[in-house]
Amino acid sequence: MKSRGLAALALVFWPFFADASDRGPVTNLPLPRYVSLKASEANVRRGPSLTHRIDWVFKRRDMPLMITAEYGHWRRVQDRDGAGGWVHYTLLSGVRTAIIEAEMLDVMVRPEPGALVVARLEQGVIARLSECGPDWCEISADGYDGWAPKSALWGVEPDETLD
Questions:
Q1: Which among 120, 95, 116, 121 has a CA at the least distance from the CA of 37?
Q2: What is the pTM for the complete model shown?
């Protein structure tokens, strides 16, 4: 009887502690992985259900988020500052975006140092990712397209490539 109660308790708290797997138990997609906020507002909850308290609200459409866990229709996410919680999957998009981390970022016409500068983007600007190689990503933001060093972006892993 006691072991059944412990097993039930483990199932209840599993989503809060399950990070060891490389794949999500619901989608079978890699964990962690990046997505973006589809909605202009998203409630961030303490747990994976509507009955859990809302800790805060994300209010920035297209903001990149990292999914760290899955449970049913819920995804545990965190932003670039490490703040996060559980968000319903319908509020998320697979469209890849990144936040400019550099104080002022030169966007280049080609993925190489010294190339012609197409635009300068301020820290905190959200850019859409098109392609990423080992060191550079092709981005678009505010009507400008070009290449930026991957190290100046949050929303893509250092060893990740995108086609």
A1: 95
A2: 0.83
For residues 156 and 137, is the Cβ–Cβ distance under 8 A?
A: yes
DSSP state of 150: G
Q: Counting beta carbons within 10 angstroms of the beta carbon of residue 32, is it exposed (0 to 12), middle (13 to 18) or buried (19 or more)?
A: middle
- Rounded to an integer, what distance in angstroms lies between the CA atom of residue 111 and that of residue 114? 9
The single-letter code of the amino acid at 81 is: D
pLDDT tens across 88-141, in order?
Answer: 999 999 999 999 999 999 999 999 999 999 999 999 999 999 999 999 999 999
In angstroms, rounded to a whole number, what is the distance separating the alpha carbons of residues 2 and 15? 22
User: What residue spans of the chain are helical by DSSP H?
Assistant: 2-17
Please give the single-letter amino acid code of residue 102: A
CA–CA separation, 78 and 71 (whole Å): 15
Q: Which residue has the tokens 């697979």?
A: 94
